[in-house]
Amino acid sequence: MDHNAFSPLEAAYRCHSWFSSATNQAMDAHFVKRTIKKIIPPGAATSGFVYTNLDLGAKEVVVTLLGRGTFKDFFFFLSSGNLHTHYAEVDFASLHRPDDLVVCASEPELRAALEQLPCCTTNEDESALGDPLNLVLIGEAEELLAAFVDRHWDMTEKLHAGSVWREVTAFLTGARYRYAPFSPLYFSGRRQDLALQKARETIRARNHLRLWRTPIRFTGKPVWVGQVSRDIGVRVTTKTWNLLTHRIDPNVDDTRDYVVQSLILSQRVATVGYIRGGEATQEDAPRRNLTGDP
Fold first, then answer.
1. Positions in the chain short of pLDDT 50
2. pLDDT value, residue 244
3. Domain positions in the chain
4. Of 96, 144, 279, 287, whose CB has the highest number of CB atoms within 10 Å?
5. What 8-state DSSP symbol labels residue 261?
């Protein structure tokens, strides 16, 4: 569940006191006794702890069954930590009325339905176009989250006093903030249902993804439309409340292809395809998003 997990004695050592030898020994024994075994024989049962890093929002646990010349992975998805997200506030059960659902029984029907979607996100009152919609994912929310978490993406914290302070601090110190909030974009009159990001070396650079669940269903699973782009710097603007915004890489298709490649490496992608999107844009005549970036 964590490539950087701690051994029992390492976890105990980090809690040792300088002048408590007997207590430290008892602590070592306590941590060792309660660790879960990494290899469980056939027919056996076990319980215990993994000494792991705290990843806020979501964590994945993989259990692998080994047989003669074969193996089978089982993926479990856990909520972890006290991360305030908009995703936790979305009532997916009532997001679309039954009469609004578009059930696609074949790939041509799915393509036709997707090609009717708008080209771009909008601002809140839908009076201006924002970043282009450039990604479609099919699956339950937990399946999508597990695949992204496996590729080291994090859920995004919503804007509140604490997250704003952490974002400002990270900006001033040049640190990274794995769960940094980002501004809302809108599709079908609502902000993103799920926001994910892959932090880089500083808060000035990251990949970020907004996803909305559509009323389209394919093979019984919900269809999501998304907007993914890469932050490559920070600039001053009068179009945001804090006078700052990230500058994005204008080639959003390149960023989309990076995400697709990453998900394929997770070995959880059944099919990849392309559909007709918005009109092609030339480098010397770009469209611009809500903050003026090409």
1. none
2. 65
3. 8-78, 87-265
4. 144
5. H
Q: How many CB atoms lie within 10 A of CB 72?
A: 9
Q: What is the model's pLDDT at position 213?
A: 97
Instruction: Give the list of residues 6+ apart from residue 234 with CB closer than 8 angstroms, or none.
Output: 171, 204, 244, 245, 246, 247
pTM of the model: 0.85
Paired tokens of 272: 């990849």
Place of tokens 């204008």: 250
Q: Per-residue pLDDT tens for 89-123?
A: 999 999 999 999 999 999 999 999 999 999 999 99
Alpha-carbon dihedral angle through residues 158, 159, 161, 167, given to the nearest 10 degrees: 90
Q: Are strands 221-236 and 135-138 parallel, antiparallel or unpaired?
A: antiparallel
Q: How far apart are the first and last CA of the chain?
A: 39
Token pair for 186:
């809108």
Could you give the CA distance from residue 32 to residue 85 in angstroms, rounded to a whole number?
Answer: 35
216, β-bridge pairs: 102
pLDDT in tens, 209-226: 999 999 999 999 999 999
Joined tokens for residue 289? 């998003």
In whole angstroms, give the CA distance from residue 255 to residue 157: 22
- In DSSP notation, 217-229 reads EETTEEEEEEEEE
Please report, for residues 23, 32, 49, 63, the alpha-carbon distance to residue 13 in angstroms, rounded to integers and kept in the order given. Answer: 11, 12, 16, 27
**What's residue 241's pLDDT?**
58
What's the confidence (pLDDT) of residue 188? 93
Phi, psi of 162 (to 5 degrees): -65, -45
Strand partners, 75: 62
